[in-house]
Design a protein that fits this description.
Elements: H1 2-29, H2 33-93, H3 96-121, H4 126-141, H5 164-175
Helix pairs in contact: 1-2
Protein name: CHMP6 protein
Main location: membrane
Keywords: Coiled coil, Endosome, Membrane, Protein transport, Transport
Amino acid sequence: QQRDKLKQYQKRISLNLERERALARQLLKEGKKEKAMLLLKKKRYQEQLLDKTENQISNLERMVQDIEFTQIEMKVIEGLKIGNECLNKMHQVMSIEEVERIIGETQDAVEYQRQIDEILAGSLTEEDEDAILEELNAITQEQMELPEVPSEPLPEKIPGTLSLYALQLWLLVLLS
């Protein structure tokens, strides 16, 4: 409001300056130099008032900007305060010890579930797996004796017997 009042005052002074300048010209034309000089001094004084008014308006505008910025800062500080209070309430609900306890319980539950899964799946213990590996090594190290394969070729067909193809089929049936 004060800024607006000062601007109105500036307009009034500016109009007066124009009138006084015109009046000073007229007085000079009429030969009234002393009165024209006095009017120009008054005009000069009003110009200085106009400059002071401009500075005051500038100061007021700067102050309004500072106030607006301070209001924004206050809102930020209030937001930070509310945020800190919220964090403190959350920390009261969940202490470090509580979080560590929950993590420990979770790890225990995961381990327990793994053990249940192993039992249900019939998985072997570490000892069982070691025994299986030893047995596998023993088998691979043993030399297996294979029967000797005849060196002469088998006949295509022996009269009164089955063909080689039929013999192979008969062996497959017996073996399965």
